[in-house]
Amino acid sequence: MSIASADSGPSVASVEPAAPVAQFFIPAAASLQERRPRTLKHGDTFALFDHNGDALSGPGSPEGLFHRDTRYLSHLYLTINGKWPMLLSSTLRDDNATLTCDLTNPDLFDERGKLRLGHDLIHLRRSRFLWNARCYERLAIRNYDDRPQQVRIEIGFGADFADLFEVRGTARARKGRHLPPVMGQNSILLSYIGLDDRRRSTRLSFAPQPDEIRSDLITYDLHLEPRETRSLFIEIGCDQTADQPSHRSFFLALRDARRALRSSSSRAASIATSNEIFNEVARRSISDLYMLMTDKPEGPYPYAGVPWFSTVFGRDALITALETLWLDPQIARGVLGHLGANQAREIDPVADAEPGKILHEVRYGEMAELGEVPFRRYYGSIDSTPLFVMLAGEYLKRTGDLATIERLVPHIEAALTWIDEHGDRDGDGFVEYGRLTEEGLINQAWKDSHDSIFHADGTSAKGPIAIAEVQAYVYGAWQAAAEIFRRLGRPERAAKFLARAEGLRRAFDTSFFDDDLGTYVLALDGDKRPCRVRSSNAGHALFTGIAYPERAAQVTRTLMSASSFCGWGIRTIPSTEARYNPMSYHNGSIWPHDNALIASGLARYGYRAEAARIFEGLFAASTYIDLRRLPELFCGLPRQRAQGPTFYPVACSPQAWAAAAPLLLLQSCLGLDFDPNALHISFNEPQLPSFLDEVILRRLQIGNGSADVAIRRSGRHVVVDAIDCRGDIRVLTTA
């Protein structure tokens, strides 16, 4: 992802003078960890609320209701008799369908200071969810006193219609204009006309009709008999026509929302283990993935993360699809279809677009429409294109779905042509990046902070830059292309691509491996000088198989050394390097997806014990994290006994590729693989991490059948048992 768009980065104040202001850093003025907001998402709409269910806008606050990169509701708060209610509990359902906040009244006094109502006598339950660009809420108020009570419920609100990039900290010299509120008996319409001449509107509707309605506040005066419950319903629609809210519309929408979540997540294999805490981690991971999933014409597509990246990102979705391919191949199918349909067709310097290049990011807000940020349809990532071809090959290997691949062939061909004609800028066989305008991203690999690519002395590398993992992805793309064209009955092209892969492998080993470092260098700069820096990037060479087997032991030792593996996971940059900072975004932090890809690479070369150590570290971290939800990243400070990890202040959570990380880690340890032609499900040298004694996988899909499999520890061995096979499927184990 990008600091400019897909990931939270350092504050604007930390940018070096030479860095252009158009890098759109996310300022660290407020920590998401301080408030730990509750997140809801459906389609192109997401919302962040505090634990009380309120949204309190302010400097650096991301709270509110967002739709297509605009904040449609920036302020929402509830009081009882003019006082803030006290929090009892706040929780998301396991499937992320609804947010429930239980509140109660504090001690309430009259104007003379006499206690009028003791605390904990009025219970308020806020139940809220998103569906089809609307936020639905039911507020149930129950009187537990033995006497009747008169309570006043006030709900305040406001809509700033801020562009997401404004919320993230980008200043604007000019803005559009707010229209006067339009008030009805039970509704309020708030509208804004942007500088792009688009009208954006928020309609708040209430049932029953409030006792008082103002432009920023509604009031209910309720008489509650002992044990009586009253329900109030609120609908907040983004660019919606007026509808009368009611209990019926609330419950019908709730039914539809839950059905849709169940339908999409039912495609996934299920995971049950001997460790109930890991079961919670797995359930949350799968729930987060399907909450972030957005239906596109081509199929399901995982948006990158909330709050900053709830939109299409190429790199993130491609890696998420690779992580979940064993679990639900339809994710990969949707990602390939959507990215193929939006592949660049011409040169557009502002968008960093070149024919055949795969999307980096899409934005729909006012600032993107006006060109104030370059991300309306932006192609500035160097790795999305080879990852696209890689995923196509892996999807074919997983499913045998040649018909889908045949439809994608024009896009695969265009991507391969881009690698040759535009990716390799100087004809040396390596793919380099360099932005086409001063407004584009400086660094265009996944570590895209302005200071993430540097030499051993800490000086920034000058471009065009050939970064290590991108060469690994290109190798994977050539390998994938060879398999695709072999299956298409074109052996000459397949042989050509295999030769390209082997040539790149030799050149990569010569130019990138450094015996003194014990690993691959971070990158080659524009003068072909190696950036002699140890980094987690080298682990991606194991992930795609570009590393020669004789290099794997050295790379593994370096990755798992004390300077790199801190106990929670592998740092992006080990403590031995010049720019190491465990609190930085890319120079010493721990990213779950990065660790999952590295663990997959370790397992590929037979280092399953090391992969299990990474799995154990990330699992241990999750036990300290709210909702068992792995965030985008956390700080790389050393693990201390009886203490949890140190959180990164503006890390997104949930984040798709972080949610998928435990799923890929499980596959890597189990050695789980599929052969759709032979209808075989195989477990190659399976190993269980120390916190698991048994794993049961149900509905492992292959061909038109599926299997349920149990993997159990038996002394020093791991035993695989096929519980049930539906169809002509065989489950194989290799020791």
Description:
This protein has 735 residues and is of the alpha+beta class. Helix content is 29%, strand content 25%. The strands form ten sheets. Strands 7-8-11-12-19-16-15-14 form an eight-stranded antiparallel beta sheet, with helices on one face. A five-stranded antiparallel beta sheet has the order 3-6-13-18-17, with no helix packed on it. A four-stranded antiparallel beta sheet has the order 1-2-4-5, with no helix packed on it. A hairpin with a 2-residue loop joins strand 11 (122-131) and strand 12 (134-143). Helix 5 runs parallel beside helix 8, helix 8 (384-399) packs antiparallel against helix 9 and helix 14 runs parallel beside helix 17 (661-670). The two termini are 38 Å apart.
The coarse silhouette is: globular
| Spatial arrangement of strands, main beta sheet | 7-8-11-12-19-16-15-14
Q: Strand fraction band?
A: 25-35%
Number of helices: 17
Distance between the termini: 38 Å
Query: Uncertain regions: pLDDT < 50 for 5+ in a row?
Result: 2-29
Structural class: alpha+beta
Q: What radius of gyration results from the CA coordinates? A: 27 Å
Task: Count every beta strand, where a strand is a DSSP E run of 2 or more residues.
Answer: 35
Q: Percent range for helical residues?
A: 25-40%
Mean pLDDT: 93
Question: Can you summarize the main beta sheet?
Answer: 8 strands, antiparallel
